[in-house]
């Protein structure tokens, strides 16, 4: 396995600019919505996170993808790469689609970074093509027959009590060994 | 695989590949299959070898050499009172649309 595309072209390590740090999204979002007069959102925060080691070698594992992107819905307004935030394109129930269906998934219902991102390349937010290549190369045993969509419901309760159990049920139905979750 | 380091680590997940890219590029740079393959490879290595929950790997890939892009997201500091009123109105419309959709779902 290589060291990645950066290895051969990586410049010598040097001091970085002071402000070149991970963006503080919670702080910035809180400040923005407080400026608009809204009370702050409470992000999910737990005392621990679950962990299960992979039970089979990855080269024999069946992997599922879960995305927050939405299938294009012709009746739901502008979902193009330059569309403003589109609440009508949001979905509120888990969906599934065949991995060999060449899906047309959009993220107009998500608060992605519209100042810097023009989502014209599905592969930049949905790694199905790259996963299929990894399977073809023998890196991953196989993909589940379906990928799944996770609603971006801001309710902790609905996410934990409805959406996550439904996603788990579908993953188990498909004989999933591991999931790659790719929020947008 | 994601781009918002603070939000994901605040929640806590089993394994996390963090790309220091603008939100919307969780799987790599657009139209750059090599960066996408590498970002996925980091995720696969985490599946194989993360020692415990909350393991984060920071992708070495940079969005651009100049980090100035990081200042643009939701910058409330530059909003005038008129901007705020307009965005507040837009948000109220969005909330109403979402409510109608949710209740009809």
Structure characterization notes:
The complex is a heterodimer of chains A (184) and B (105). Helix content of chain A is 23%, strand content 14%. Chain A is built from four helices and seven strands, in the order ααββββαββαβ. The radius of gyration of chain A is 19 Å and the shape is globular. Chain A starts with 5 loop residues before the first helix and ends with a strand. The model of chain A has no long low-confidence stretch (mean pLDDT 93). With 105 residues, chain B is mainly α. Chain B folds into two domains: 68 residues, no CATH class; 32 residues. Chain B is built from three helices and two strands, in the order H-E-H-E-H. Chain B has a two-stranded parallel sheet with strand order 1-2. Chain B is extended. In chain B, 32% of the residues are buried. The interface between A and B is large, with 74 and 68 residues.
Name the features.
heterodimer; A: 184 residues; alpha/beta; two-stranded antiparallel ribbon; 7 strands; B: 105 residues; mainly alpha; 2 domains; two-stranded parallel ribbon
Counting helices, strands and paired strands, the structural category of chain B is mainly alpha
Q: How many domain modules of chain B? A: 2
Overall mean confidence score, pLDDT of chain B: 91
The parts of chain A where pLDDT drops under 50 for at least 5 residues are none
As a percent range, the share of helical residues of chain A equals 10-25%
Rough outline of chain B? extended
Order of helices and strands of chain A: HHEEEEHEEHE
Biggest interchain interface, per-side counts: A-B, 74 and 68 residues
Estimate the strand proportion of chain B.
Answer: 5-15%
Structural class of chain A comes to alpha/beta
What oligomerization state is this entry in? heterodimer
- Strand element count of chain B: 2
Query: Helix and strand string of chain B, N-terminal first?
Result: HEHEH
Residues in β-strands, percent of chain A: 5-15%
Strand segment count of chain A? 7
